[in-house]
Amino acid sequence: MESNIDKKSLWRMAEVLFETFVKSFGKTSCHEFLPKQFRVMLSAAAYVLMDHIRRVALAGTELAKAQVTTMRLKLFKIGARITWSVRRIVLQLSSGWPWHAVFRQAAARLMAAV
After folding, report:
1. Which of 23, 22, 13 minimizes the C-alpha distance to 51?
2. Cβ distance 71 to 54 under 8 Å?
3. How many CB atoms lie within 10 A of CB 35?
4. What is the pTM of this model?
5. What is the pLDDT of residues 20-58, one digit of tens each?
6. How many CB atoms within 10 Å of residue 54?
7. How far apart are CA 41 and CA 5, in angstroms?
8. Please, which residues have CB within 8 angstroms of residue 36's CB and are 6 or more apart in sequence?
């Protein structure tokens, strides 16, 4: 299986995973290894998911090279109204939100990739 990840990206991913691993030991109230390890694995999975969103959905946008924190603040940490019906889930975003077009484009790219 061929990998499209260059050495710099792989090094950065390993660095972030190590930082997450070190930080997670201080944040948990549990003193056992397995819960801490599970937390680190969840953090790693979240980072990989965000990296995939950045590479696939945000390619060619202003957030194509953004850090995970920036992506989270500008795209995901927003106020919205969620309406559930039998057939669909409607996400109503503010019309004055400056990242509306980027979010819409990213969502369309992710839905097309499925």
Report:
1. 13
2. yes
3. 13
4. 0.61
5. 666 655 555 667 778 778 877 888 888 888 888 899 899
6. 20
7. 20
8. 24, 25, 28, 30
